[in-house]
Amino acid sequence: MSTKIIFIFKIIISIIILQTLYYKFSGAEESVALFTKLAGENEAYLRVGTGVLELIACIVFFIPKTIWLGATMIIGLMSGAIFSHLTKLGIVHNNDGGLLFGSACLSLIVALIVLYKERKNVPLIGKNFK
């Protein structure tokens, strides 16, 4: 897989994740309602904490030596998002037609592809991959 395609994948994931940060950090009604379903009165901690982790993941995703770490963080975050949709939120949340769920699925798949491509650069275990 070419470096250009991987770069395009990284841009796609970053656009998907970073555009949601405005809603998380500004306390937008939709974001507060979503995280209230997940965490009740502690929604602000989960909402802002998730946003901070997503921001960090997107930053390290573009640093050549830590692409693998960003991909791993995104895989974890999107797995949590997908699990939340399947167990508490529903695939369609707030009449979004499944857009949030689909975005999480797309981000997870693309992050898995990027991590596979970067597997040789993972410290300690990367040298075992051919």
How does this model look, in words?
It is a single chain. With 130 residues, the chain is an all-alpha fold. It has one domain. Helices cover 73% and strands 0% of the residues. The longest helix has 24 residues, at 3-26. The model has no long low-confidence stretch (mean pLDDT 91).
What's this, in brief?
By secondary structure, the protein is mostly helical. The protein contains 5 helices and no strands. It has one domain.
Topology (SSEs and partners):
Blueprint: H1 3-26, H2 29-39, H3 43-60, H4 67-89, H5 99-117
Our Rg estimate from Cα atoms comes to 15 Å
Strand content: under 5%
Mean pLDDT: 91
Low-confidence stretches: none
Q: What overall form do the CA principal axes indicate? A: elongated
Spell the H/E element sequence: HHHHH
Count the E strands: 0
Measured as a percent range, the helix fraction is: over 70%
Question: What are the salient characteristics of this protein?
Answer:
mainly alpha, elongated, 73% helix, 5 helices, 0% strand
